[in-house]
Design a protein that fits this description.
The chain is mostly helical. It has one domain: Orthogonal Bundle (ADP-ribosylglycohydrolase fold). It contains 19 helices and no strands. α13 runs antiparallel to α14, α14 packs parallel to α16 and α17 packs antiparallel against α18.
Length: 313
């Protein structure tokens, strides 16, 4: 009976929403599994010049693993239920803790596994300041995909998805910014006058709360799209500091620069190094919604390992 009640509460367009979530997951996981090959770009210099793809299989990291947990919760509940999400994060971590989780995430997830409240664990990080890292942003595209028709819901649900591990306002702002960009991208496909970079930045800045991340996005919006990507990364960051403010602005600049070219966007982000799997995940999750399934490279999907997801769990 409880399951029937929960299913009855799902939106009438739940299947349509979940189709967008699956699309975001494909893009996010492609960007993640592609980018994680490029933590030492000098080793792949010939690949950047020839566009030779890394060898199979492309394994994904914690970026995708945590996004899959978000998708699981959305599939079952039609919203972010934080206790369920915390449990999903912890279960996936317990099954495979070697996906490249950051130290803060490991501390929180181990605490949850041990029975501690996620609220206490997340709030206690970094001497009680909470995490301002890019971990909440890297997994936020599915949230924007599901709630694309309602930006008020996008903001609230992105905040809830972040708080399970990131309680610092800047970590939360990163998740909101990426979710807003994903929602914009999902809506862009049906809007003739929304294919301008200015529209993307205007939408994201309208919804992102005041924070270092927002200030970085403002700088990204002012930066010409024609500049060298290394110059952009020098101004905005490339995720090397693993902070939201050091990651999200550059990702949005790359998205704006390559709104209709998924593969070129990911070559661009990987070329500058930094936290290449996370920048790839953020860019890929947003751009997949902009270009649609037909815009994703089939040969890349064939190389990526199968996603371990159970929407019907």
């Amino acid at each position: 009976m409880q399951v029937m009640t929960r299913l009855a509460a799902l939106p009438l367009d739940h299947d349509v929403r979940m189709a967008r979530v699956r699309l975001a997951l494909d893009g996010l996981s492609l960007g993640d599994s592609f980018g994680q090959h490029f933590f030492a770009p000098e080793l792949w210099r010939t690949q950047f010049n020839s566009r030779e793809l890394p060898p199979s299989p492309w394994t994904y990291t914690d970026d995708t693993e945590m996004a899959l947990a978000i998708a699981d919760v959305l599939a079952r509940h039609g919203e972010i239920v934080q206790d369920q999400l915390a449990g999903g994060f912890a279960r996936r971590f317990g099954v495979n803790p070697y996906r490249g989780y950051g130290s803060g995430a490991i501390e929180v997830l181990q605490a949850i596994e041990a029975g501690r409240s996620w609220r206490e664990a997340a709030a206690g990080l970094f001497d009680g300041r909470g995490s301002l890292g890019n971990g909440a942003a890297m997994r936020a595209a599915p949230v924007g995909a599901y709630f694309a028709g309602d930006f008020e819901a996008v903001i609230e649900q992105a905040r809830k998805s972040a708080e399970v591990t990131h309680t610092h306002p800047d970590g939360i702002a990163g998740a909101i910014a990426v979710a807003a960009a994903a929602a914009w991208a999902a809506n862009r496909r049906a809007t003739e006058d929304a294919n301008r970079a200015e529209s993307l930045f205007e939408c994201v800045l309208e919804h992102t709360p005041e924070s270092a991340t927002r200030q970085g996005i403002e700088a990204a919006a002012r930066l010409p799209l024609e500049v060298w990507e290394f110059h952009a990364a020098g101004k905005l960051g490339n995720g090397a500091d693993i902070r939201s403010a050091d990651t999200v602005p550059f990702c949005l600049w790359v998205v704006a620069r390559h709104l209709d070219d998924f593969t070129e966007a990911l070559w661009t982000s990987s070329r500058v190094g930094g936290d290449a799997d996370t920048t790839g995940a953020i860019i890929g999750g947003i751009l997949a919604l902009a270009v649609g399934p037909e815009g994703l490279p089939i040969n890349w999907l064939a190389k990526r390992e199968e996603l371990l997801i159970s929407f019907d769990a």
